[in-house]
Amino acid sequence: MKIFIATKNQKKLQELKRILAPMGFDVLCENDLDFALIDAVEDGQTFEENALIKAKSGLAQTGYITVADDSGLCVDYLGGKPGIYSARFAGEHGNSDLNNDKLLNELRGVEMEKRTAHFACVVACVFPDGRQFTVSGECHGHIAFERQQGSGGFGYDPLFISEKGPFSQLSSDEKDKISHRGKALRLFKEKIKEYIEV
Predict the structure, then answer these.
(1) Does the active-site annotation cover 70?
(2) Catalytic residue among 26, 32, 70, 173
(3) What is the value of pTM for the model shown?
(4) How many domains does the chain have?
């Protein structure tokens, strides 16, 4: 069964494909199309709204069952920021170095007990017949005082310390077991069974 992942983020795409492919899906992405995907305007106020906006945009352009996620880092001391603005926290979309620098600056002098945070992820799935659903997952931890060693992950992973250690030091399998996206996609795996025979 063909399912389209609506994202231009290659690291996120790899993560989604790694988790979805073993479920029996024929996973497609923009590289499998003979045209460039038009970016959706993410003007929602929540992760769920933005995930649905992206999924519906992908469906409209491809005609395939489409999956999209919206995710971000929510820091308690900052009132939940950067939240839905995680990718463009420092003003330039997708610049992880600038985003991490800004986060460290905003938490300068804040003790570890107050550096609690969680990653949130909402995965949306939309069907050509109009049906849709969303699932969500969270991973809780702390923000480090400086970037952690390790080449794993992306985005804020060098700063996020989970119960299993810094995200940047976890293998893909280790991260998938505890990550916000891994949790959401395991729920997705069960939820989609209500809609389709995989």
Answers:
(1) yes
(2) 70
(3) 0.90
(4) 1
